[in-house]
Amino acid sequence: MRAQNWDQFRAAMNRWGAPGENQVYADRNGNIGWIPGGLTPIRPNWDGLMPVPGDGRYEWSGFRNGDELPSEFNPARGYVVTANENNIPSEHPAAKKGIGYEWSDAARARRLKELFAGKVAAGQRFTLEDSQRMQNDIVATPAQRLLKLLAGLGSSDAQTAAGLALLQGWDGTMDRDSAAAALYEVWSSKPLRQAVLKAGAGESAVQYALPGDNTRMVLLLENPFGWVSNAQRDAMLVQTIAPAMQELSNKLGPDPAAWKWGALHRAEFRHPLGGIVDAATRRKLDVGDWPMSGSAFTPMAASYRASDYRLTSGASFRMVLDVGNWDASRVINTPGQSGNPDSPNYRDLAPLWLEGKYVPLVYSRAAVEKETVERIRLTPAP
Q1: What is the β-pairing status of strands 21-26 and 311-314?
Q2: Nearest Cα to 201, choosing from 239, 228, 163?
Q3: Domain at 6-103: CATH architecture
Q4: Three-state SS string across 158-176, please?
Q5: Mean pLDDT (the chain, rounded)
């Protein structure tokens, strides 16, 4: 894509096929914009959620034109945010056409909007450093909302009281060294979620609903009308603390002061061939086993496996661009730029990535020459 302006960018995005992605736009004149790209099928008589007979009655009738999808250009708020959430405006015609049903939780986007809105309200200019901090932000807004429900609650059980005190003194930051973050994730993802599902759904549905939608769970607890009373909700919050405390005691020891979220939430890059090579080669191929901050609900996305909390997905590539001075742009890739395990660049970027740091991403010939450390020349065989 070599678009020179917004109109050319829109025209190019109209032909975007796959994968479906949110694309953002910025230019040297201060214009910004957002367009979702991707082919979306036209289903005349069904929505795609359930299987249908393959007898020709439910065939697609082509694909929608990209111009039918929503977009933004220079919104009055002064910024655009996209974090894989459902960002199709409810009033837009596309929202009624069944474009998609599977979206990431909106918590990450909500936190980013808070950060942007705060800067705008203060009349502050945005910097590259601001963008880097936002990409590495580890505040979980669902946690902050649940903490408000815990305010004022107590228990005569010593273990439960200790857990409540730990959470009530926390601000929702998913730091790898935080004991409260560890307790929150274990509590909210297992005993609390299970209790909510059992109270609000039939027993047979529980096993299919885990791990579920975090924001919806919090919303149910904030507005318990019709399925439990406020008192029952509060009892549920308190009674599910002890099982989480016990799990952490079993995994990390009996002293909560020694607990750390990063002791459970760990990042390791395992090579696909690791399962068929010897131990020495596996150590050479695999990279890291580090404590990791964040969660699936923080701007710095760090989803984990429910069984052991180990990292399963996140942003392996981060980029901050300065369209007014391209050579000031920054990037980080992990674990390294080389795919050769014998190269010093195979794993050298991983520690920087882990700490939220970046390296230069340059464009001009002079800057590229200055930053170059190695040239690879590919010569065709005679």
Answers
A1: unpaired
A2: 228
A3: 4-Layer Sandwich (3.60)
A4: HHHHHHHHHHHCCCCECCC
A5: 91
pLDDT at 1: 62
Q: Does domain 141-264 have CATH number 1.10.1400.10?
A: yes
Element (H, E) at 149: helix 141-150
**CA dist., res. 109 & res. 141, Å (int):** 10
Tokens 């990042």 appear where? 267
Q: What is the DSSP string of 50-64?
A: S---SSSTT----B-
One-letter amino acid of 277? V
Q: Is 169 exposed, middle or buried (0-12, 13-18, 19+ CB in 10 A)?
A: exposed
The reported pTM is 0.90
pLDDT in tens, 148-185: 999 999 999 999 999 999 999 999 999 999 999 999 99
Q: How far apart (Å, rounded) are the C-alpha atoms in residues 63 and 364?
A: 40
As a whole number of angstroms, the distance between CA 117 and CA 190 comes to 33
At position 312, the amino acid (one-letter code) is: T
